[in-house]
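Exercise 7. Given the components listed, write out the predicted structure of the assembled complex. Treat all entries as one system.
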Amino acid sequence: MTADPVAHRRHPRRTGGGIPQLPFRTLTNPFTPLEVLSADHVEDIHRTSLRILEEVGVEVLGDRAVDKLVAAGATVDRSNRRVRLDGALVEELIATAPPEFTLHARNPERNVVLGGRHLVFSSVGGPAFVTDLDRGRRAGTWQDFQDYVALISTLNVIHQEAGGPLEPTDLPVETRHLDEYGCLATTLDKTWHCLGTGATVVEDALEIVELARGVSREELLERPSLITIINTNSPLRLDGAMSEGLIAMAEAGQAVVATPFTLAGAMTPVTLAAAIAQQNAEALVCVALTQIVRCGAPVVYGAFTSNVDMRTGSPAFGTPEYVKGAIASGQMARRYRLPWRSSNATASSVVDAQAAYESEMAVWGAMMGGVNLLYQGAGWLEGGLTASYEKLIVDAEILQMMSEVLQPVVVDEASLGLDAIAEVGPGGHFFGSAHTLERFETAFYRPILSDWRNYETWADDGALTATQRANRIWKQLLREFVPPPLDQSAAEGIADFVATRKREIERRA
Amino acid sequence: MTADPVAHRRHPRRTGGGIPQLPFRTLTNPFTPLEVLSADHVEDIHRTSLRILEEVGVEVLGDRAVDKLVAAGATVDRSNRRVRLDGALVEELIATAPPEFTLHARNPERNVVLGGRHLVFSSVGGPAFVTDLDRGRRAGTWQDFQDYVALISTLNVIHQEAGGPLEPTDLPVETRHLDEYGCLATTLDKTWHCLGTGATVVEDALEIVELARGVSREELLERPSLITIINTNSPLRLDGAMSEGLIAMAEAGQAVVATPFTLAGAMTPVTLAAAIAQQNAEALVCVALTQIVRCGAPVVYGAFTSNVDMRTGSPAFGTPEYVKGAIASGQMARRYRLPWRSSNATASSVVDAQAAYESEMAVWGAMMGGVNLLYQGAGWLEGGLTASYEKLIVDAEILQMMSEVLQPVVVDEASLGLDAIAEVGPGGHFFGSAHTLERFETAFYRPILSDWRNYETWADDGALTATQRANRIWKQLLREFVPPPLDQSAAEGIADFVATRKREIERRA
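Answer.
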């Protein structure tokens, strides 16, 4: 990874003095990805997806997207905007997508690589609501937005911000994205997601990230920073704003995560095979469009297949079907040599045992499947409608633990410790042995949140649940937060841009 | 599996009318086991374990065990009861242990196979305390014992009981095991663990299980029912009662789970390699002893390596080190072609997010490592000191979900659903399509505990956490519990035996 010329670090990053954390570090996954589909089944799903694109087609609501697809060889029925692509054409188009690419943060030590064995954790993106134990569930505010982004900044295990953890509903809709981008670009030295809902929000993000990194549009194109989620409206529809966002991102060489959000039973058939086949068709047409716009544009195979509860219609997450759908999606992504995105999701309305076991199901499934981008990695609650302060801390613990599972077991003469075992002998203990004393401080994972004290000590100290302890932890992290250093000129440039653009938009309104 | 001639089922088993459950079913794990050790590292650990047994030796406190080991070729220093075994001797002795065996329940449909790809979930075993939301944490009672065993009986996902979920401290210590066995043999038609603390408690279990199944000692030897945990006192000590229990079980052809309980930093060096090498040495000497007693006796490679918090000395469970230790242990067990036991463990004092994420870590690690017996599968809390009624339900949900992850994804023309996708087309939905209507009732996993309703509905219904809902569920299961059918003569025989033996023991006291 090449150093970014204008990223500065004046002093070491403070990250909540009293709360122990692992350092920021990039991760690779040493495990062979788990498979739930045979090689034949992968091909069956692939062929079904191509038949969906050939025979059924996708409704594309953006004119520019339709024109580009047609110019590349697709056919369109203008009466219903149904675009059909020949299988061979799809395969030809997607072949130019890079299997791996780097996103550049303003601090080059926070750069991330997507693809291959690399693993990136992002925070929650997109909720309208926010919740914590003190204030309850409520509409997101601008203060919440800033506080939540500060926590994302300070939590080292989170590699990347995900496009706004909550909706600051007290800001005007027309200019909200500018305040958000200004906050993200100054509070974080990590990469962050921009919005994908049209060309304007992409253009504003490009301007701001250029100011933050001090790079030109050409440099940004060569060394991209931004990433956004492009959702299809399943089944088989790409809306106008999303298609414009996709085109703007690909034109600028920034990364798109092509993510059908497919709930089996509602937006796809109930069978997992069909859900994956349809998801795959929708993802492939988006991937193809990025490559039509710009050959070699960075793109991630997004997957978000879960199911609805057929009795209530409620979406379910972190279920067995979710896990198998994720692992199958990873297999499809690898078939196309594309980086793969999955999520850390739960349907629970509260930060309880269900929230934890559903999130663990989702995270383990993703990890075992070889995920590259674990989007919604920390903070998601209630099917993604709410960002929870306490869930953010629970998830940070879950992600830290997973990151340690990926570290190798050292086996050598010293670690095998035969001499120490012989010295202590039967019936002794190892607390005072030299072998222990040389290693004990770093031998084991140290948690952020877990309480391992005995029952009496735990009870005497207030008998707090993990969620109640998480409440104390995020408040302490917030109190102790110091933003990462940013050049004064960059900060002023971003503030000026945000102010100018807001005035422009307000004047037009 | 051969049908047991005297097991009877008069009518289908009722299992808590109102609570949805998956049926009782045996499980196999389709996934290639995860590895954290290279093949060379497995051999390094193996060789270190043999050197521990050759050079350091194991302190064996039981006279019969010492004599049997010496007769088989071990040496002993009688001054400190240190038994040393040559590596070649260890390898020769353990080679006769069966890679796979069946345990026979009184209902043959509840038989379980240990080894190979087979996967068995057992309930919590051994806690002194019990807890629930209504009555709090307290010493276990005989009423609790019976209630908890009824829940284990009624929860289909639990294949096997684990030797008493809690200590009925209001019963006399001397005769307690007889009441426990009587309860287990009559309340469960599943297999169950007996105690391994000496020959007498094993002999009583043999008598009771013979009465329950209506088989002779010879038939029981050929088709075993019982299983027990034999713990070493790490480091490197086998106590007298455990060695007598091991011998009695092996003589009767019943299964032993040879389980060193090794907390790195306290009972082993802090390094994972040393902890596994020492655990392996301790497990191997127990496996060897079973085979000396009876060539081909069923034995499971038990592994319970975790670590202590080096700041407080508290044991930690479900940590990254625990997961890697478990997976490494599975690799060692497979090297010796032995069934492998791991656990579902947490250090949390309360049924909260921590309890769930630590349990999920332990369960996923075990499953991915290819575990055969997931002991402590449901109900364990607080480092195993407490059996929780609510945790039992949380774990039953976790295990049900894992059991569904193991089920194959069906990919065929019908499940690929191209016609349904074509029929609905872009922008539609699948709720009413024929493809959905034919399949929706069984398409997705139906939870015991998870609440997927939207926030408003959930809040209007009392805003209960998963733990609070679990409290309602175990009470309903208990209210609706009907014991599985048992021959009147068997029930009377067991009651007579328990009464007679209790009188004998009381007279002697």
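Discussion: Residues 272-293 of chain A form the longest helix (22 residues). The longest strand of chain A covers residues 255-264.
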